Input
Amino acid sequence: MIGLLGTITEQMQAARWHEDERATPLLADTTTILTTITDLAHRLDEILVQPTGATNQVAWLEVTDSTDAVTVASAPLSVQELIERGLVHQRRSAIFTGATLRTGSGFQFIRERLGLWDVNISTVDSPFDYRRSTLLYLPTDMPLPNDPHYQQGVETAIIEAARAADGRTLVLFTSYQQLRTTAEAIRVPLERLGITMLQHGQSSRYRLLQEFRQTERAVLLGTRSFWEGVDLPGDELTCLLIARLPFAVPSDPLVAARSEEFDDPFMDYTLPDAVLRFRQGFGRLIRRASDRGAVVLLDSRIWRRRYGQAFLDALPECTIRRGPISNLASAIERWLAPQDRRRDQ
Output
């Protein structure tokens, strides 16, 4: 097919179709189609027929139930070689910076993923006083995520937190399914409180953030793309809820392939990867030194499982409160109250 389309394109060019105003668009469309199909065939050949660097590649098919579309995907197991060849070795020096490059107190995981062993490491302390700015609330009666009553706890906590914060609340999920289930359950209760609910998937992230900023009292429900790159400083956002710890899906082809590289895939890959994502989500709240707000963690594995401490250790030193969901609203109200009122309380 590519050969035949190429022959047709050559004949069109030889016949000087580009000199005819009526024929020029047809020649342009044919050329574009030829280029697209050629590139697609080349990529399929690399993935399925003659994979290059096969030991560092994982390929898979994605089939959706709602459509007949089939996607062929490929990704490197490790980006070490790409970074070394395409960036590090091409420059006299390179500086990697970020607020979430560390898991706990070390850089072992990110150095392993990026292959940055022969580098100097420096940590710059945050200019934010998190003990004064951030309340970290842990609902002690929150069921585990696999408990039948967990979802009800999530819905109750969101409504109570949003009421206490007068809207201005972001809720981070790890799956669209839980987001949609939660949205259906809390929409009407929030409307009764005069709070608008914005849902990821109903519009683009840019438009949702714009509407969130412009709406006086709103709750925004977001999934993975909202865990990073969201900047809502000051009173635009005063309450953040994290529904579940952001563990990667074990059945994901890339996650499964990378896990096979480790003797203890959970501790060496899955856990530190989730801790980095968790820190990114936590960082959505405090964006300026003058910001103040509350973070509510709704995944009780943080305090019910031994590995949960790794998530708490990765956070800055906040003011921590533990109590039942029934005390959540009052805790947030006291924390967000003006300073003179807090003294009276």
Q: What stands out?
A: The CA atoms of residues 141 and 324 lie 5 Å apart. Residues 24-49 form the longest helix (26 residues). The chain has a mean pLDDT of 86.
